[in-house]
Design brief:
Blueprint lengths: L13 E5 L4 H12 L3 E6 L4 H9 L4 E5 L5 H15 L4 E4 L14 H29 L2 E8 L1 H4 L5 H21 L4 E8 L17 H7 L11 H12 L10 E4 L7
Parallel strand pairs: 1-2, 1-4, 2-3, 4-5, 5-6, 6-7
Helix pairs in contact: 1-8, 3-4, 4-6
Bound molecules: nicotinamide-adenine-dinucleotide.
Amino acid sequence: MQLHQFERGLQGRVAIVTGAAIGNGRAFCERLAEEGATIVIADIADASETQQALEALGATVLSVKVDATKPADTQRMAEEVMKAFGRIDILVHNVGKYEEEPFELLSFEQWKDMLSLNLDSLFLSVKAVLPAMKEGGFGRIIALSSDTVWLGTPYLTHYVTSKMGVIGFVRSLSSEVGKYGITANAVTVGLTAIQRPESQQSGRVSSSILEHILPSQSIQRADEPEDIANVVAFLALPASGIINGQAINVDGGVARH
Ligand SMILES: NC(=O)c1ccc[n+]([C@@H]2O[C@H](COP(=O)([O-])OP(=O)(O)OC[C@H]3O[C@@H](n4cnc5c(N)ncnc54)[C@H](O)[C@@H]3O)[C@@H](O)[C@H]2O)c1
């Protein structure tokens, strides 16, 4: 048997990661860049720190300032990427927010804000990049969901509804776009280290949620962003082209009841 010359798996590919200025998205950019991808950071916030870190790794990087809930912004995002690189191969839909609220206190405004940021943004980003993926005959759409969709975690009706919507979206879309060489998958993420109360994201995950989840994990630690990034990179590879319309669970082995 002859060994093939090893090539980084995403060399020559262009990957857009939404919500990548901080947190999980930044780890996804780093992992995709390690595989050789050109990285587009699409975020509403300043992403210069992440851009510099990626460039220090030797990556080609473009930052696009975008409100992912605005059609004109996501359209401009795709146009800027096509102008700069002439192709879009990968979309990691990472933008999203987490918020706990007991249902009886949840307002209609909170409900709509959640669905807008977590779901409208997915619709708009995919609408914007799909023509380029179709033209290139290759596409990987990877959308971040949450393992809370399987768990019945309290105080999250709006969040869980949006994240279940992400799964429904990729499952249906996958059956339409597979014939063009495009896959659409979701990653259902567990409690991630960056959201621990003692971390930078202080207070976003309440101690009641921590108490609810950690004891039921077979691996007694929160996910690290790098754990999720490995799965995102795997789904982005050309070799993963047979995986379509799936939700891959990355949550430390939470037992389901
Ligand atoms: N961290 C966790 O424990 C966890 C668990 C399950 C799922 N997730 C999912 O993973 C994804 C990332 O989570 P995170 O904790 O890294 O988030 P984060 O809040 O740390 O980062 C979100 C990023 O999105 C950007 N952003 C916010 N609104 C935007 C908008 N309108 N347009 C463009 N960019 C916008 C922010 O500037 C930020 O860079 C989310 O979809 C989240 O639901 C996270």
